[in-house]
Design a protein that fits this description.
The complex is a heterodimer of chains A (173) and B (187). Helices cover 80% and strands 0% of the residues of chain A. Chain A is an all-alpha fold. Chain B has eight helices and no strands. The longest helix of chain B is centred in the middle third of the chain and has 43 residues. The radius of gyration of chain B is 21 Å and the shape is flat. The chains are: A mainly alpha (173), B mainly alpha (187). At the A-B interface, helix 1, helix 2, helix 3, helix 4 and helix 5 of A face helix 2, helix 3, helix 4, helix 5 and helix 6 of B.
């Protein structure tokens, strides 16, 4: 895959995912990990983890993927291209916001968002089969999920707490 | 759009710094939103709260990050098309620099022990974040509804039929078009 193809892929997937970072994970996994073996699942997960603990948009994890594949230029172009759909705002502010209120558009995006829930969960099962092979990994996974979902801990804190627990268990076992 | 505060404007330098401060905020989109409101509405007082909220509502319709849409809207208002580039750059710069540094760090990790540690700590945590995102996106899905049918079908299509995720998304959109009534969003 050359840089141009990668940038187009990022643009297309960002649009399909409506800018949602997590929805792009299964898309990238299919194209870059399974399809062309350009990345490992671990690298994709790492890129996603970085996006969770850095400030800013979650879909900026594409910059991490871009860097892994093409260096700094990959990161810059990926970061630039995910912002392009934002320019449709210039159309909306001129009074064309009616487009967004058209029922068909809202039904379509609702269908896509709903499908993306199933998509992400399927990807999680596939990644989990590969990556959650050790009990410590499971402990960290469940602890992070509990901390962020049920106790609403900030991502960075949850990551540090769960990762430290994992590290401690690794040292003790 | 909406009621603008007249006269006061932002220079390109101020525009850049405003969005840079917003881009440093933690808490994802909502964190940036709060920081941006603080800067534009309260500190610099170049935008009224009504105008800010109106643009936020519009920004949510854009098929990408709402904060990018805000950067485009206000970047254009205060600096034309070059202003949009200035605003987006400020917004994205902190995260981009950190992202590149942390990604580069991964490449320099020595093989073997560190990668094993990573696979037992950071990576399972990342997977949990992904699940959390799905739960958040689908908070209205997990009840007897057509939403549940679409989500379950998407899940099965990928796991059992190895369907390509982009086709699944488009099929979901089509299903929504055909099946949902009215147009009210459920979230």
């Amino acid at each position: 895959m050359n840089l141009g193809e990668f940038v187009l892929l990022v643009f297309a997937y960002n649009l399909l995912a409506l800018g949602n970072g997590p929805v792009m994970v299964p898309l990238f996994r299919r194209s870059l990990v399974e399809g062309r073996s350009l990345l490992t699942t671990d690298q994709l997960l790492y890129a996603f983890a970085i996006a969770q603990v850095t400030p800013g948009q979650a879909n900026l994890f594409v910059a991490s993927v871009g860097y892994m594949l093409f260096g700094i230029i990959g990161a810059l172009l990926a970061a630039a291209v995910i912002n392009l759909p934002g320019y449709t705002m210039l159309v909306l502010v001129r009074g064309y916001e009616r487009f967004g209120k058209i029922r068909a558009v809202r039904r379509f995006t609702r269908g896509m968002t709903t499908a993306s829930v199933g998509l992400i969960l399927a990807a999680t099962v596939e990644i989990g089969r590969q990556s959650l092979t050790h009990p410590i990994g499971w402990v960290v996974f469940l602890l992070t999920l509990a901390l962020t979902s049920f106790w609403n801990c900030p991502p960075l804190l949850s990551l540090l707490a769960a990762a430290s627990t994992g590290l401690l268990l690794k040292i003790c076992m | 759009m909406g009621q603008e505060t007249p006269v006061r404007t932002l220079s390109r330098r101020q525009l850049f710094l405003t969005f840079l401060k917003a881009g440093l905020a933690f808490g994802g989109g909502l964190g940036i939103l709060a920081a941006l409101e603080e800067e534009l509405v309260h500190k610099q007082q170049v935008v009224s709260r009504e105008d800010f909220l109106a643009n936020y509502a519009l920004g949510r319709m854009v098929p990408s990050g709402t904060m990018t849409a805000m950067a485009v809207a206000y970047g254009y208002r205060f600096g034309g098309l070059p202003g949009t580039v200035v605003a987006i750059t400020g917004l994205v710069l902190p995260a981009l620099v950190l992202t590149v540094l942390l990604t580069a760090a991964y490449a320099f990790l020595p093989n073997g022990p560190w990668l094993v540690v990573l696979s037992m700590t950071i990576l399972p945590a990342a997977l949990a974040f992904i699940v959390k995102a799905a739960l958040k996106l689908g908070r209205d899905v997990f009840r007897p509804s057509f939403d549940l049918v679409i989500a379950a079908a998407a899940f099965a299509a990928v796991l059992l039929c190895n369907a390509h995720p982009s086709l699944v998304l488009l099929a979901g959109g089509l299903a929504g078009l055909l099946a949902f009534r009215g147009g009210a969003e459920h979230s």
